[in-house]
Amino acid sequence: MSSSASQPELKRVEDLWFPDASLILRAENSLFRVHSSILAARSSVFRDMITFPQPRQPEGGEADMVDGCIVVRLHDSATEVEVFFKAIFDSSFFERAPVPVDFSALIGVLRLSHKYDVQYLFRRALSHLDSMYPTSLQTLQDILTGETYPHVYSSCQWEITEHMGALRAASEVGASWLLPAVYYRITSTFSMELADGRLSIADVQRCLTAQTAFVRATTESHAFLRLLPAPTCRTPMRCRTAVSAAYGMLDEWSSDQEDCNPLSSWVFYCTGLPCDTCTEMAKSSFSAVQERFWARLPSIFGLAEWEELKKMETAIMESAA
After folding, report:
1. Does any domain span residue 184?
2. Is the CB of residue 12 less than 8 Å from the CB of residue 24?
3. Which end of the chain is more exposed for a tag (fewer CB within 10 A), N or C?
4. How far apart are CA 232 and CA 216, in angstroms?
5. Cβ neighbour number for residue 12 with a 10 Å cutoff
6. Beta carbons within 8 Å of 276's beta carbon, 6+ residues apart
7. Beta carbons of 30 and 13 less than 8 angstroms apart
8. Per the structure, how many domains does the chain have?
9. Nearest alpha-carbon partner for 114 in 38, 168, 180
10. In terms of DSSP H, where are the helices of 135-275?
11. How would you classify residue 4: left for phi > 0, otherwise alpha for psi between -120 and 50, otherwise beta?
């Protein structure tokens, strides 16, 4: 390859360097030698890129060459290009849900499959994200309580950094139906990390504003404690003791982030109510508050209603089929 003293050292990505291939692509300082016919079959964007002749270099200039092949530059991160190409050229690298995938690889495949129009990978990536950020209240609550876990993503620690990455990626590719659950996870685990530049100013403001609604809904969800014991309770003394213990835990956890998590069920389950009548009354009141909150969750963040978001999901997933 033509070089100069100021040129960075280029690295061949061994797992994606096929000696019999004729197409060499560069992302940052990484080189990928891959089969153009396979890329063209998977991606309309690469098909057009390969079909069009490469532009000539200015007179007197030299084209970037490796092993007699012109090097085509991609304006993407080398890390994302690597996982994207692995998903294309290694069928076992990025499989359908529920097979586990690496979270950072998931985001890279999502972004580049959308950019380069690789529909089957785009749909596959969205399906993985659907399991993490559902449009169903029950599904999200099962995740929050640990009753179900969306595939063991090897690098996902369910921290705010992952949620912020999912927010950026989902917004970029137009997967708006994922956003209510993503915003919920960020807002309910708020920290000053929101202000460190990893979210836009608009998103920071959106999450900060939403916290008021979150606190109100959380407080309202605890209102079932005031209804107890039920008029027909058979063990009023024991139920009063359980309620008193629950209030004690609320005071103890007053500064904890759970206090801004209206869909959490920890208060309800920690009461340990001994009476079936009180349990059913509490559950009915508790669930009603959470269902009302879930119904208006998209509007809290300035998004379309759930019905519209679900229609959008259907349209995009069907168009990617």
Report:
1. no
2. no
3. C
4. 29
5. 13
6. none
7. yes
8. 2
9. 168
10. 137-145, 160-173, 179-188, 201-221, 236-252, 266-270
11. beta
Task: Write phi, then psi, for 272 (nearest 5 degrees).
Answer: 60, 40
Contacts of 114 (CB under 8 A, 6+ apart): 122, 172, 173
Distance of alpha carbon 89 from alpha carbon 68, whole angstroms = 23
Residue type, 214: F
**Tokens matching residue 131:** 């399991």
Residue 45 lies in a domain: yes
**Contact in structure between 90 and 101 (CB atoms under 8 Å):** no
**Sign of the torsion angle spanned by Cα atoms 35, 37, 38, 39:** positive
Q: Residue 83 domain-assigned? A: no
- Name the domain boundary from 29, 49, 77: 77
36/184 Cα distance (integer angstroms)? 42
Establish if 91 belongs to a structural domain: no
What pLDDT does residue 193 have?
56
Q: Last residue of a domain, which of 33, 52, 77? A: 77
Q: Which domain holds residue 236?
A: 221-300
Contact 69, 24 (CB under 8 A): yes
The predicted pLDDT at position 52 comes to 67
C-alpha to C-alpha distance for 87 and 93, rounded to whole angstroms? 6
Q: What is the pLDDT of residue 257?
A: 47
The residues with which 27 forms a beta bridge, in sequence order, are 30, 74
